[in-house]
């Protein structure tokens, strides 16, 4: 059961977004995030909202999947919203006991909340419509220029892909180790922070040892299949842009220009 | 024609401490000779530590011998320029199914090998199709390995090797972590590939039942081919080897249950021929005494 | 010591479209001091079953009684139960973590609240029971061979002095020497200490020699729970479950079919030898 959990779970359905080249989606997510943090105008936020809603509809992924990711950042969201809400100086609107809420605080907290929520939703659309392999392939190809700076892009992409492959396996192994130690009377629930941290040693040590062993085995298996780095590798399904991707890039360009313009004009 | 030719191989495992001083040296292979004929199915038998897995890793140049030469289809494993060619010719399937699979999708993992050697795109797709078909996993082509059983994962690993179009496959204890069904699956494929595609198979195992169907069994002990009580090398057909029940016991190995029973009955005075391997053979041999 | 399971049922993903039985209405009583083998296909529920016996899994319905007490009742001390019902998982060597062998084996006793001296005593005793030589006590567990690691892991559970020892495929991945070693060690423990042993396995051949009772699971249901010889009589049914009877039992069947009058329930080489000599030497 645990094995079905993948980070940024992929939702398998056919949609315009699913069919886009992963590089396009990476670029799109990047452009969207930049626009979120760049814009200060109401028009900007409205446009961002429209863009997000469009992408969600086009992706044909059910809304509740998209909002799943929000659960993870709930804590961060509450903290940053509260901080901004109660600690910003300015024109006081009302008080709750010793806590004061200012007009500026309300505005900043509001925008911050929107940014965070849109950030998570935007990234979710990306990961829900792209398989881990496509993601790493996309990163590898689009960051290829970094090779000139002697950064081993292919190797890093390969590491990421392998890590994604083994996450469910390591999760299951952690569970097994926990149960084995519990069978020897280990207690992971009670005690203060220090106690509980110490109690993790019988889980972390075997897990690390196991991970290293897997890595060694995997390296042998890869070498046995003639892996020798990125040089000379071909791909069974190489990434190729389609007409839809070109249209998507044009839309992104227009989007970011309008946002910049709206800011410039000063709404 | 010999596809593998090992002559006077020596290999040591050296345990060093933090200052690089030698703590312990284990002689894993000592003056080891072996020739494997093309198209044959050879089983390397022996308990853990006898050197069989060490030898396996020498075949595809994952390790190099300290002394001696190992030729794979005439290519010397010590020649670094030939390493990739050797690995294409001699593939290897390991013990742990999960730790051989790189990708999250079956067909992508099978493509990994051909991609590494720069096979053109259309050819990769063709090879992947054939390899997945050869191991009977076509229905699982787009699945994640996490949804497969141990036996199925090993089949994917075998497909990954087949996609490299090898002439020889070394199976290093491929069934040790599988349940009985998985074991059957893997052995069936190994035999089929040997029979139908002419792939030379070197099967390393400590399960006697798997050795029964090999063409040839080589028993290893302390880094060499084991010798029987007459000083003869324990290297021959399954019937020959499993006749030597006492020698195998002395090596902490077992024989198939039926062979053991036949041996016991013989020592108690019932004249049954040596080298009985199957139930049918034993029934036939006992019939005259009903 | 008594373990009794009553209508034990465990559902995966209850209430969803993926709902399926891991265990379906399983009831049995394990006699004190017996050596029980649990056999079943992969997915039959055997691993899930044994993890209920020490409370690691909770049932959807039904319960387990240990020494007359309901272990899933409110307030039952499961931590204490796990020191009495020891469970050794498959490939237990993967749980080793301490600096050296003796410290790792002391983990269980220390968790029980024993003093360092008492824990060390128990650890040493357990290591001797698994025939581990004393000069390895201070070694790092990661420097040992696979078979040695496994014995240390088993010692880790034995050190808690459990009344019941459950082992999930303790011979998995071992060579014949390793397998015989472990099984021999378990038989010795059973004989000399009277510990109740529950062994989960795939192989009928392995358990034919040492088990007093055989439990067969199929698709989450308990199909047989009887002496091995009784269970082996149901060859066809066992085969329909994807299980085989011991090789020797098949041989007996073929010999009988060929016209020899002999005991059909022989299951080990020793038994078959005695029986065949008895029957053939009469001529």
How would you describe the overall organization of this protein?
- The complex is a heterotrimer of chains A (267), B (290) and C (283).
- Chain A is mostly helical.
- Chain A folds into two domains: 1-130 and 236-267, no CATH class; 154-233, no CATH class.
- Chain A has helices spanning 16-19, 22-38, 42-59, 63-66, 68-87, 103-128, 132-142, 153-182, 193-199, 201-224, 243-265, and strands at 92-96, 99-102.
- Chain A has a two-stranded antiparallel ribbon with strand order 1-2.
- The model of chain A is unreliable at 1-7 (pLDDT under 50).
- In chain B, 36% of the residues lie in helices and 24% in strands.
- Chain B has eleven helices and eleven strands.
- In chain B, strand 1 (2-16) and strand 2 form a beta hairpin.
- Chain B is globular.
- The model of chain B has no long low-confidence stretch (mean pLDDT 93).
- Chain C has 283 residues and is an alpha/beta fold.
- In chain C, the strands form two sheets. Chain C has a six-stranded mixed beta sheet with strand order 6-7-8-3-9-10, with helices on both faces.
- In chain C, a hairpin with a 7-residue loop joins strand 1 (3-12) and strand 2 (20-30).
- In chain C, helix 4 packs across helix 5 (146-158).
- The longest helix of chain C is centred in the middle third of the chain and has 18 residues, at 176-193.
- Chain C starts with a strand and ends with a helix.
- The model of chain C has no long low-confidence stretch (mean pLDDT 92).
- The chains are: A mainly alpha (267), B alpha/beta (290), C alpha/beta (283).
- The A-B interface holds A 3-4, 131-133, 161-162, 164-165, 168-169, 213-214, 217-218, 220-228, 232-236, 238 and B 57, 60, 62, 84, 87-88, 91-92, 94, 96, 98-105, 107-108, 111-121, 124-125, 128, 145-147, 157, 160-161, 164.
